[in-house]
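Translate sequence into structure tokens.
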Amino acid sequence: MPLLTVNEVGVRFGGVTALDRLSFTIEEAQICALIGPNGAGKTTLFNCLSRLYEVDEGTIMFNGVDLLQLSPHRVARIGVARTFQNLALFPALTVLENVMVGAHTQGHIGFGRAMLRLGAGREERQLRAKCSDILERLELAHVAARPAAGLPFGTLKRIEFARALASSPRLLLLDEPANGLTHGEVDELGVAIRDIRERFDLTVLLVEHHMAMVMSISDHVVVLDFGRKIAEGPPAMVRDDPAVIEAYLGAPA
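Result follows.
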């Protein structure tokens, strides 16, 4: 059974169809890229997966669970984590504290016990140790005690990865992670994504405009245009698909 199954999903905003009966699957441990021109519906799908948007039709199943029946908090708790196009770190918090924020969905003591500090100290120590280990594995331990403010942009991107990993996901949604990076940083990012997939036993769904990186790290590619799927398959096959070429470059005169 695929880890994620998107089946006939449709989303409309007034008279605009953002997703038009979209269907595809992702197998366990795959890196799947979702690509397409601006306005193709890629981020709309991410917002459906993380339950920020409602769908008008179709189903989304994750590991046998209907995501559309869950709240955003429950989606995170069952193993779906997401990064965003724009960084959303807390500048005044340390890097370690920023990463610890990402694990809040995995807490067990509840609000009342946290207010009374009943068991909160032990849970916080365990959380701190877990997030410190994540930073170590991502080679960020040397900045753990530093505030996020002032760190290089590429480092901040990796910190955001660490924060997403703190929730112990099985599926990691990366929304344009190469946005704003230099060419050298993009190359490093591609290596990091493959490494994170292996080290943390993850499945990755990636939205990205940087085609060189997409084609070099993806196992499977799904192409959208105006909310419709126009192609899918291995990167080499998708790259040479006439419908994909037309969507990106326009029909020849």
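Note: The CA atoms of residues 8 and 22 lie 5 Å apart.
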